[in-house]
Amino acid sequence: MNGIPITHILFVSTALFFIGMYGLFTRRNLISLLMSVELILNSVNINFVAFNKYLYPGKMDGVFFTIFIITVAAAEAAVGIAIVINLYRSHQSIDVEDAATMKY
């Protein structure tokens, strides 16, 4: 097969996954947390497309899963941003720890 070897693709996907996990565990800003979740979902999308191309080149199952994940990620981003806006309006902060300690 011509093109990029699967090891390079998996290396990029793994790097994206761990960057997302690092952001998820170290950031306190809700928008940064949402971006970290998006990075993790995109690394999964890369894996689906790569394994679909190299293991089952005639099928489109990995691409369909990727389209489904992109749809779910778009809905998650829309709902997450709405929650962040409402949280900022009520508490004047989007810091996760500030939101957890405030009374409603």
Q: How does this model look, in words?
A:
The chain has about 100 residues and is an all-alpha fold. It has one domain (about 5-100): Helix Hairpins (Orthogonal Bundle), CATH 1.10.287.3510. It is built from 4 helices and no strands. α1 (about 5-25) runs antiparallel to α2 and α2 packs antiparallel against α3. The longest helix is centred in the last third of the chain and has 31 residues, at about 60-90. The chain is elongated, with a radius of gyration of 17 Å. The termini are far apart.
For the structure shown, list the relevant keywords:
Helix Hairpins, 104 residues, 4 helices
Uncertain runs with pLDDT below 50, 5 residues or more? none
Biggest beta-sheet profile: none
CATH architecture: Orthogonal Bundle
What CATH calls the topology is Helix Hairpins
Helix content: over 70%
What is the chain-wise order of helices and strands? Answer: HHHH
- Given helix and strand content, the structural type is mainly alpha
Q: Name the CATH class.
A: Mainly Alpha
The rounded distance between the terminal residues' Cα atoms is 59 Å
Work out the helix count: 4
The structural domain count equals 1
Q: What is the mean predicted local confidence, pLDDT?
A: 87
Radius of gyration: 17 Å
Total count of strands:
0
Strand content: under 5%
Principal-axes shape call: elongated
Q: Can I get a quick summary?
A:
By secondary structure, this protein is mainly α.
